[in-house]
Every structure is written in C-alpha cells, then in structure tokens.
Amino acid sequence: MSGAGWQRIDWNTLDARARADVLRRPAQSACVEVHASVERILADVRARGDAALRALTLQFDDVTIDDFAVGEAEFARAMGDVDADVQAAIDDAARRIETFHRAGMAAPYAVDTAPGVRCERVLRPIGRVGLYAPAGSAPLPSTVLMLGIPAQLAGCTDTILCTPPGKDGAVDPVLLVAAQRCGIARVFKVGGAQAIAAMAFGTESIPRCDKVFGPGNAYVTEAKRIVSMQGDGPAIDMPAGPSEVLVIADGGADPRFVAADLLSQAEHGRDSQVLLVSDDGALIEAVEAALQAQLATLPRRAIARAALAQSRAIQVQALADAFDVSNAYAPEHLILAVRTPRAWLPRVRAAGSVFLGDFSPEAIGDYCSGTNHVLPTGGAARAISGLSVASFQTAITVQCVDPAGLSAIGGTAMILARAEGLEAHARAVGVRLEATA
Ligand SMILES: NC(=O)c1ccc[n+]([C@@H]2O[C@H](COP(=O)([O-])OP(=O)(O)OC[C@H]3O[C@@H](n4cnc5c(N)ncnc54)[C@H](O)[C@@H]3O)[C@@H](O)[C@H]2O)c1
Ligand SMILES: N[C@H](CO)Cc1c[nH]c[nH+]1
Ligand SMILES: [Zn+2]
C-alpha cells in the first residue's frame, strides 16, 4: 500500500496466478450477495408489478412514488428551471454525439452471389427499447444522450427511460432536458434492479421492452445479465457496470494530468477501479503525490479514496509490457499518456474506448467528444464493443433467387442436404429444378 491508498505492484516479480489476482475487479468478489439480492428483486417485480416497485423504491431509494411516470408538468418545470448554459451544453454535446454516431451507421447492402441470386441485408429499428440512466450516487444526464441519440438515429420510435427518483420524488431536471433533447417522452421514476425487472417483464405502469440498455451499479448490471438469460426476457446491450480506467504512462507524462484522469473515474463509485501502468518508477511516485494533493480538495474524496483502495499502480520493465497488462485486463477506458500514442495504438487489442495523448482526458469522452460512454466493463471489452446505432437495430438478410439462379446453385444445396441426411431439404430444391427443366 502507498500514500495514494492503492497497491504498488512490481509486475516482473509476479507469477501467472498473482498477475491474475492483481487484475481482478472489486465487483467480482461481491457478486454472490449481489446475485442473491437481485434474484429476490426480480421475482418480486415479476409477481407483484407496481406494488413491488413501490416497496423496493421505498426500501432502496427512501421515497414513496405514487405515479412512476414523469408528467408533462415535471418536464415543463425542468425546461424552465435548468440554466441556459447547461441547456446549451446539452445541445452542443448532443450534436457532436450525433455526428460521430451518424458517421458510423451501417448501410443496407445487396450483392449477386451468382447470376440470378441476389442476397441483401436490410436494417430495422428494434421495436420497444428500454433505457436506464443511473442516478444513485449522481444523476447522469450525459448517459441519456449516449443512449437516446443512437436510439433516435436507429429509428426507434417506442423508447422509454427509467431512472431513480431523488429523495423529493422528482427526477433530476437536467436529465429530463437531456431526455427531451433525444425525443424521449416516457420517463419513469424507478431505479436499480427493480427498474430492469420492470422493463424486462412489464408492470401495470411500465411496458415490457424488447431490449434493455444502459449502465448502472452492480445491482443493475446483474439484473440485466439475469433477465437476458431468461427464456422470455429481453435482449441487453452489454455489461456496463462500475467504471474503470487504465492509464499507460511513460516517463514524459504529466503526473497532474494522470492523477486527474484516475480520480475522474475513481469518483464514480466505491467499486470503481483505476489502474496506472508505467515503466517509470519516478512517474508512479509523482502521480501518487499528485493524487494526494488533488484528493485534498475533491468534493467526492471519500468515494474516490474507497475506489483507490482497490486500485493498483503497476510497474513494468518496458512500455510494451504495459500493453500486455492492459490487453489482459481489457479496460472500459484506456488512456495512452505516452509520447507517440498513435504508434502504440495497433498494440491495443481489448478496450472499450481509447484516449490518445496528454490532451485527451477520459472525461471528454464521457461528455462531448462524440464517442459513446456506455462501454463494456469487467473485462467484457475482450469481446464486446461499446454502444452504437447498430445496438438499436436488427439486421435482416434477404435472398431472391430466379430460375436461372436456382439451376446455378441448387445442385450444391442438394448435395449438402443429402450429406446431412436431410432429404426434405434436397427435395425442396429438386422439385423446383424439375419444374423448370
Ligand atoms: N460502464 C459504463 O458505461 C458506465 C457509464 C456510466 C456510469 N457507470 C457506472 O454506473 C454506476 C451508477 O451507479 P449508482 O449506484 O450511482 O446508480 P444506479 O442508478 O446504477 O443505482 C442506483 C439504484 O441502486 C439501487 N440500490 C442501491 N443500493 C441497493 C442495495 N443494497 N440493494 C439493491 N439495490 C440497491 C437503488 O434502487 C438505486 O435506485 C456507477 O458504478 C458508474 O461507475 C458505468
Ligand atoms: N465514465 C462513465 C462511464 O464509465 C460515464 C460518465 C457519465 N458522466 C460522467 N462519466
Ligand atoms: Zn465518468
């Protein structure tokens, strides 16, 4: 343990098992209790609907909610109450998020795989989508933009949003302004695993959704995982749980910048995890000093300190080794605070989103660079990507075969069908070939 509260690790001295332990997420050790509690919540909402939502909201959010739906008056109040500069910032961020996501949209395509055989891929918006915006430790209106804008670009017209109510029973007004900016008119005051259950199963007030999206704490993330595995449950976007950042810094990095980036993720929650990986011991010590200095005045220092207690500074022998550590960890966010960041980019194989160079703080991706901040955590970045317009669409393939096309490729189908012992398949082709012979 060092003065920064995290563990100092010399990577080179560890065997494979010790290395795996160092890269373990804090959320992984708590998951048995979280799982049991979430199972109870899901069963309760499935059985009792709104009555369960009311009881659970009182238990976990300490507020009684009569009507879960945000009414027109609350929306209007939010539009009137939120400062003009905040509204303008929402608009500015929204435009940039829209620009980036629009540019990445998949296009339908068609190709002739043989004369008379046309194959196509067409895109459709998912029917009803349920979005979750966290508001436990801090309401996150930026998350509403990150979910709502790609949903809108995908063409989703039936979009609902759930978010925890404040102690006064109201939804954060900035969050409502962000919802309005994305054309989301149906917002419900319910949070945690119970919100995911409501969107998955439906209740008297909240409609059942085809796919559930959004980040959240360990309860929200576990609820999404469980409902997505139930036969009648919705699809989900990804595991997007407690925030993480891994910074690879060389000796030329500015320790104040690195410390600020680490704290920006540590302040999210006690179960956030931040990792510094460097080949330079002096840089690590300078970052530790900067962390202590910056923590002294940070409003959420108690949360950040708790997160640092389960975080690590890892010293490697060479910068190239830092990329092995990062790829094994597969962080939600990866900052390359190194001298030639773009030259190192090809080494990155697993990360949700990458920030190149000293002037690309992770916080800029959280709000307004244009990329999406809903990203895979817990190592899921090894195989899962962050949110995009495609997350809100299904791709349907289409084929149209004319008689010439069937005579060109039908024989192949018949041989393969018979190789599989599926005679009816072969005959479905053969009967047509005979009819056109
Ligand atoms: N990976 C991503 O893309 C991403 C993006 C944004 C935020 N995040 C993460 O989302 C998380 C937001 O968490 P949060 O807690 O602030 O808000 P949240 O909205 O996810 O969770 C708050 C809800 O949790 C429920 N809850 C609280 N204690 C509980 C308990 N003991 N048992 C059952 N339910 C309980 C309550 O109902 C409450 O409404 C943070 O960890 C943040 O790092 C991740
Ligand atoms: N860093 C978070 C994702 O881990 C997203 C966020 C929203 N607001 C601030 N940060
Ligand atoms: Zn953040």
UniProtKB/TrEMBL annotation:
<keyword id="KW-0560">Oxidoreductase</keyword>
<keyword id="KW-0862">Zinc</keyword>
<dbReference type="InterPro" id="IPR001692">
    <property type="entry name" value="Histidinol_DH_CS"/>
</dbReference>
<feature type="binding site">
    <location>
        <position position="217"/>
    </location>
    <ligand>
        <name>NAD(+)</name>
    </ligand>
</feature>
<keyword id="KW-0520">NAD</keyword>
<feature type="binding site">
    <location>
        <position position="333"/>
    </location>
    <ligand>
        <name>substrate</name>
    </ligand>
</feature>
<feature type="binding site">
    <location>
        <position position="425"/>
    </location>
    <ligand>
        <name>substrate</name>
    </ligand>
</feature>
<feature type="binding site">
    <location>
        <position position="268"/>
    </location>
    <ligand>
        <name>substrate</name>
    </ligand>
</feature>
<dbReference type="Pfam" id="PF00815">
    <property type="entry name" value="Histidinol_dh"/>
</dbReference>
<comment type="similarity">
    <text>Belongs to the histidinol dehydrogenase family.</text>
</comment>
<dbReference type="InterPro" id="IPR012131">
    <property type="entry name" value="Hstdl_DH"/>
</dbReference>
<protein>
    <recommendedName>
        <fullName>Histidinol dehydrogenase</fullName>
        <ecNumber>1.1.1.23</ecNumber>
    </recommendedName>
</protein>
<keyword id="KW-0028">Amino-acid biosynthesis</keyword>
<feature type="active site" description="Proton acceptor">
    <location>
        <position position="332"/>
    </location>
</feature>
<feature type="binding site">
    <location>
        <position position="194"/>
    </location>
    <ligand>
        <name>NAD(+)</name>
    </ligand>
</feature>
<feature type="binding site">
    <location>
        <position position="366"/>
    </location>
    <ligand>
        <name>Zn(2+)</name>
    </ligand>
</feature>
<feature type="binding site">
    <location>
        <position position="132"/>
    </location>
    <ligand>
        <name>NAD(+)</name>
    </ligand>
</feature>
<keyword id="KW-0479">Metal-binding</keyword>
<feature type="binding site">
    <location>
        <position position="425"/>
    </location>
    <ligand>
        <name>Zn(2+)</name>
    </ligand>
</feature>
<comment type="pathway">
    <text>Amino-acid biosynthesis; L-histidine biosynthesis; L-histidine from 5-phospho-alpha-D-ribose 1-diphosphate: step 9/9.</text>
</comment>
<feature type="binding site">
    <location>
        <position position="265"/>
    </location>
    <ligand>
        <name>substrate</name>
    </ligand>
</feature>
<feature type="binding site">
    <location>
        <position position="268"/>
    </location>
    <ligand>
        <name>Zn(2+)</name>
    </ligand>
</feature>
<dbReference type="InterPro" id="IPR016161">
    <property type="entry name" value="Ald_DH/histidinol_DH"/>
</dbReference>
<feature type="binding site">
    <location>
        <position position="265"/>
    </location>
    <ligand>
        <name>Zn(2+)</name>
    </ligand>
</feature>
<feature type="binding site">
    <location>
        <position position="243"/>
    </location>
    <ligand>
        <name>substrate</name>
    </ligand>
</feature>
<feature type="binding site">
    <location>
        <position position="420"/>
    </location>
    <ligand>
        <name>substrate</name>
    </ligand>
</feature>
<keyword id="KW-0368">Histidine biosynthesis</keyword>
<feature type="active site" description="Proton acceptor">
    <location>
        <position position="333"/>
    </location>
</feature>
<comment type="function">
    <text>Catalyzes the sequential NAD-dependent oxidations of L-histidinol to L-histidinaldehyde and then to L-histidine.</text>
</comment>
<dbReference type="InterPro" id="IPR022695">
    <property type="entry name" value="Histidinol_DH_monofunct"/>
</dbReference>
<feature type="binding site">
    <location>
        <position position="366"/>
    </location>
    <ligand>
        <name>substrate</name>
    </ligand>
</feature>
